[in-house]
């Protein structure tokens, strides 16, 4: 499902060229970014992909959006200059809001949750916080904390921690964070995952988009993600935000060339 058709990135220029985030996009001519069920923003370090994701999360007003220190005025000004358009539902009516479950999830958020639930003293706090992010009220949280359902879920998490690696625990956290009919912005979700688990998560995202009617905007430079996702891919390393096939991207071609040079070692 597509809830937001596209995002208009501010093209306004200011005299103070070192002001964030104007300085990130100073030499870019990106303009309008069409969004599909799964949209991937590819780019090397300093390409602006994480900045753009956070700007979108702030503009959409979803959980996980971050403000910044320093040039807060310019940051808010830039967000105000951006815009987006809602899609229409099956009856031709425009969506007016996003699901409250919609979230901006960064790789460090997942790693932080893994570390928290690995410490039993923080396990309950972490699990209740995830329930709060999912929309459970504070009153209901107090009831849930002492319920059988909470005890059973905590036992399952403890068992998973004993059985699974950090990467497998990260996959479980992603699964627990996804709700139907919601929009998710993911920043490098492949972090801490092996190539096999990267492919597995990418396949799950394809399924969540198809069967749970979720929409995803993802920043990644993982060839395993890029080659598995049923996505529109935009190259942020170009000045004009061009759409690319995954096999054309620099990082992917580097992997291809590397293994080609060592091909005889796999015989």
Automatic annotation (TrEMBL):
A Pfam family recorded for this sequence: AAA_15
Domain AAA+ ATPase: 35-239
Gene3D superfamilies for this protein: P-loop containing nucleotide triphosphate hydrolases
Matches recorded under SUPFAM superfamilies: P-loop containing nucleoside triphosphate hydrolases (SSF52540)
PANTHER family for this protein: ATP/GTP PHOSPHATASE, ATP_GTP PHOSPHATASE
Protein name: AAA family ATPase
């Amino acid at each position: 499902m597509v809830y937001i058709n596209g995002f208009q990135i501010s093209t306004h220029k200011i005299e103070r060229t070192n002001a964030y985030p104007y300085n990130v996009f100073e030499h870019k001519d990106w303009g309008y970014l069409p969004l599909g069920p799964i949209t991937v923003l590819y780019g090397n370090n300093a390409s602006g992909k994480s900045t753009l994701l956070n700007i979108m999360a702030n503009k959409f007003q979803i959980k996980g959006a971050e403000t910044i220190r320093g040039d807060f005025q310019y940051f808010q000004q830039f967000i105000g200059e951006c815009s987006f358009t809602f899609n229409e539902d099956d009856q031709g009516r425009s969506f007016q809001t996003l699901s409250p479950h919609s979230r901006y999830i960064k790789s460090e958020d997942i790693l932080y949750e893994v570390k928290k639930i690995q410490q039993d003293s923080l396990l309950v706090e972490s699990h209740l916080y995830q329930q709060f992010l999912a929309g459970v009220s504070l009153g209901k949280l107090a009831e849930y904390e002492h319920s059988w359902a909470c005890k059973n879920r905590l036992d399952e998490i403890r068992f998973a921690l004993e059985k699974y690696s950090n990467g497998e625990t990260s996959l479980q956290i992603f699964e627990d964070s996804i709700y139907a009919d919601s929009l998710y912005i993911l920043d490098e979700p492949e972090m801490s995952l092996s190539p096999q688990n990267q492919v597995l998560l990418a396949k799950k995202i394809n399924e969540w988009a198809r069967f749970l009617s979720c929409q995803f905007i993802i920043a990644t430079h993982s060839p395993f993600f890029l080659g598995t996702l049923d996505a529109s891919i935009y190259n942020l390393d170009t000045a004009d935000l061009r759409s690319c096939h995954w096999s054309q991207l620099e990082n992917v071609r580097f992997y291809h060339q590397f293994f080609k040079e060592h091909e005889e070692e796999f015989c």
